[in-house]
Amino acid sequence: MEIRRLTADDAEAYYELRLEALKKNPEAYAASYEEAIQKDDPIEQTARNMKSGFTFGAFEGKNLVGVVTLVRGSGMKVRHKADLFAVYVTPEQRGKGVGRDLLSHVLDFARNLDGL
Predict the structure, then answer these.
(1) Beta strands in 1-116 (DSSP E)
(2) Which of 11, 12, 55, 63 lies 20 to 30 angstroms, CA to CA, from 48?
(3) What is the CATH number of the domain that holds 11?
(4) Quick check: is 116 in a domain?
(5) Number of folded domains in the chain?
(6) DSSP per residue over 19-80, as a string?
(7) Distances, alpha carbon 116 to alpha carbons 69, 72, 85, 112, in Å
(8) In angstroms, rounded to a whole number, what is the distance separating the alpha carbons of residues 23 and 10?
């Protein structure tokens, strides 16, 4: 299992996994599957998001099987805080420690961000 920060090159794999998450676990997300598939050019929009945020993915071979996104506060008074969003692991990989490993990785990353 490889865990790494996602890049714009991972946008299509991330988008497909996101659609799976919205379809299989709609109760866990503010967005809906129906809204997600109606967006204009969703792969390009996802690629732009990858450049500006901190999204990490777990790969089993070449397959993206889990994700987590770290969003840092943008205002002066909240820049020292961050939240985790969009945590998802495919049902086939659940119970194997993928989620735990993703969270451990993103927390290690966050500890090294200046001022967080």
Answers:
(1) 2-5, 54-60, 63-72, 82-89
(2) 63
(3) 3.40.630.30
(4) no
(5) 1
(6) HHHHHH-GGG-SS-HHHHHTSSSHHHHHHHHHHHSEEEEEEETTEEEEEEEEEE--STTTTT
(7) 15, 8, 17, 8
(8) 20
Which single residue is written with the structure tokens 């993103």? 106
d(CA 56, CA 46): 13
Sequence letter at residue 102: L
Q: Kindly state the greatest CA–CA separation across the chain.
A: 41
Model confidence over 51-96: pLDDT tens digits? Answer: 877 999 999 999 999 999 999 888 889 989 999 988 999 999 999 9
Token duo for residue 105: 């990785």
**Nearest of 60, 116, 69 to residue 92 by alpha carbon:** 60
> Does the predicted model carry a pTM greater than 0.85?
yes
How far apart are alpha carbons 11 and 13 in whole angstroms?
6
